[in-house]
Structure to design on (333 residues):
């Protein structure tokens, strides 16, 4: 609220704006994609945030994960340090010391290598690159400088650990991640699962992945593919696999009845094209993504149409409230 208050105050004091409209970022990302509803996954610097937008309104509270650009940068630094240490140990005939693991690599060099060489592997093994392709990356900030050489596939390791691993921490129970440490596909799946049925039917084909972290080559397609797999394996039920195991003796009869009704409804409503897709769920569509020009472009379009925002702050009321010691914003912001 402090940063927002300073920005709005600068607009009112220095630019003499009569009023400022505040708009929700997920809604503007949906507008930038040319749709009215969708699931918006914003992979930012500190965290990844997901919101469901239905008919230009945010539905329910958003979900967050700390797997953002900062975590990705940290995994890249650790990856480069390990490769540097391994290379030094090989040159010393295996006599490298543990201090090699703490070789400092400057932030600017990590970010430059990340920008130039980062990518994300596809979920399909047939489309993965061959290990014969080798890449050389020079490191100039460590002492002594060194040129690292390794297979091209290995450059996808930081993305794999950051966005798709079960957990990013050294946990003794990685199958139980923290609530703020879900992988990106799991985050999208849980957001869709918690939606009402009508909302889910409208947004499941409009998954929008935006933010600075989304520019990693191959990340968007990999997330969509992983979500399809989760939906196919789990469906939309909240009950986990462990609960099914405890009722193993009584489940077959009830499960058979449910499957028969589900299959009948699918055959009556689903199209042949939809049945071929792995993410089809009862004729209500399949998992798919759409591209967005981003929140700034969406907000520019909305402002050009002179649509009222979520909150409108008037100059005189804002300055009077700030002078009286208040924030100048409505209580429900």
């Amino acid at each position: 609220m402090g940063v927002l208050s300073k920005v709005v105050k600068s607009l009112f004091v220095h630019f003499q704006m009569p009023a400022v409209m505040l708009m929700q970022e997920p809604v503007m990302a949906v507008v930038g994609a040319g749709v009215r509803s969708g699931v918006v996954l914003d992979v930012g610097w500190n965290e990844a945030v997901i919101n469901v937008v239905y008919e230009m309104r945010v539905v329910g509270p958003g979900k967050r994960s700390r797997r953002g650009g900062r975590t990705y940068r940290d995994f890249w630094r650790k990856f480069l340090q390990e490769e540097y240490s391994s290379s030094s140990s090989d040159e010393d005939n295996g006599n490298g010391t543990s201090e090699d693991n703490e070789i400092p690599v400057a932030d600017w060099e990590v970010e430059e290598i990340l920008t130039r060489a980062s990518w994300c592997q596809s979920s399909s093994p047939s489309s993965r690159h061959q290990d014969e392709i080798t890449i050389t990356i020079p490191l100039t900030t460590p002492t002594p400088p060194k040129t690292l050489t390794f297979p091209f596939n290995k450059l996808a390791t930081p993305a794999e650990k950051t966005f798709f691993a079960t957990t990013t921490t050294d946990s003794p129970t990685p199958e139980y991640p923290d609530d703020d440490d879900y992988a990106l596909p799991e985050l999208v799946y849980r957001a869709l699962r918690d939606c009402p049925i009508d909302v889910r039917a409208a947004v499941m084909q409009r998954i929008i992945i935006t933010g600075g972290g989304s520019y990693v080559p191959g990340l968007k397609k990999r997330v969509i593919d992983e979500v399809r797999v989760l939906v196919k394996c789990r469906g939309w039920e909240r009950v986990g696999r462990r609960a099914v195991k405890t009722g193993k003796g009584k489940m077959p009869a009830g499960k058979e009845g449910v499957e028969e009704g589900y299959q009948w409804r699918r055959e009556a409503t689903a199209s042949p094209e939809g049945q071929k897709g792995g993410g089809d769920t009862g004729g209500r569509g399949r998992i798919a993504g759409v591209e967005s020009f981003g929140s700034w472009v969406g907000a520019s379009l909305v402002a050009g149409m002179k649509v009222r925002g979520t909150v409108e702050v008037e100059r005189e009321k804002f300055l009077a409230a700030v002078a009286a010691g208040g924030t100048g914003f409505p209580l429900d912001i």
